[in-house]
């Protein structure tokens, strides 16, 4: 059952569940895809997240009550999302990039080799994008890799850094502060402001698979 909530002066928050599940996430993506397809003139933007979808609208064109009526009259099937896209991302886990690998090993009781194996064996669902342009949050990390954030965040982490924070893993899309435990780095750009067709490497709903490359492969990757 969908929850509807007035979310400020020009937004409605749709809630599809209390906790993240594949079913809930599928509903979020289905609704976002449907609203993009029908392209209502009074909808300004959509912000899909783990369990919610925020709909920004134009109050000068439609009231909250009117939009609420439109939304409640919609029939959206989860199967309308479309085919699954798999994105394979190379990661160099060399100590020069995996600067927190030892902390993760100490917390988990695993060796660096075991951490790399578990990190690359999984397929991850892109649950949402946010924090910085193109930064994607991934669901599906092996619970044995759980490691808390750093107590004191770093002031600057380079784009491409791969980290772990709690039950999540992800890749920093731009240079930014951050408190995730860094275990590697990818040579692949996550956010490309110059690519008008696809600013982001991945989108919500995509499946990400990491694979390991060595330091020499990393240095030569874009040559």
Question: What does this protein structure show overall?
Answer:
- The structure is a single chain.
- Helices cover 22% and strands 30% of the residues.
- It is α+β, with helices and mostly antiparallel strands.
- The strands form three sheets. The protein has a seven-stranded mixed β-sheet with strand order 5-13-6-7-10-9-12. A four-stranded antiparallel β-sheet has the order 1-2-4-3, covered by helices on one side.
- The longest helix is centred in the N-terminal third of the chain and has 17 residues, at 22-38.
- It starts with a strand and ends with a helix.
In short:
The protein has helices at 22-38, 64-72, 101-108, 112-121, 215-220, and strands spanning 3-6, 11-15, 43-48, 52-57, 86-92, 124-129, 136-139, 154-157, 161-165, 168-171, 176-178, 181-185, 207-213.
Fold topology:
Blueprint: E1 3-6, E2 11-15, H1 22-38, E3 43-48, E4 52-57, H2 64-72, E5 86-92, H3 101-108, H4 112-121, E6 124-129, E7 136-139, E8 154-157, E9 161-165, E10 168-171, E11 176-178, E12 181-185, E13 207-213, H5 215-220
Parallel strand pairs: 5-13
Antiparallel strand pairs: 1-2, 2-4, 3-4, 6-7, 6-13, 7-10, 8-11, 9-10, 9-12
């Amino acid at each position: 059952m969908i929850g509807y909530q007035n979310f400020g002066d020009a937004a409605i928050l749709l809630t599809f569940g209390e906790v993240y599940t594949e079913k809930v996430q599928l509903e979020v993506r289905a609704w976002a895809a449907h609203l993009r397809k029908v392209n209502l003139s009074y909808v300004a933007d959509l912000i899909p997240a783990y369990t919610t979808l925020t709909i920004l609208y134009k109050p000068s064109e439609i009231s909250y009550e009117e939009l609420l009526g439109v939304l409640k009259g919609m029939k959206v099937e989860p199967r309308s999302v479309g085919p699954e896209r798999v994105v394979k991302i190379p990661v160099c886990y060399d100590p020069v990039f995996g600067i927190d690998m030892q902390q993760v090993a100490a917390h988990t009781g695993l060796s660096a080799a075991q951490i790399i194996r578990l990190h690359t064996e999984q397929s991850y669902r892109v649950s949402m994008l946010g924090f910085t342009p193109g930064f994607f949050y991934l669901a599906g990390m092996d619970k044995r890799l759980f490691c808390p954030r750093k107590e004191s965040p770093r002031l600057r982490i380079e784009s491409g850094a791969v980290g772990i924070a709690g039950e999540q893993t992800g890749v920093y899309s731009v240079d930014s502060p951050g408190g995730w435990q860094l275990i590697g780095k990818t040579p692949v750009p996550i956010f490309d402001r110059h690519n008008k067709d696809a600013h982001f490497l991945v989108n919500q709903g995509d499946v990400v698979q990491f694979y390991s490359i060595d330091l020499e492969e990393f240095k030569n990757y874009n040559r």
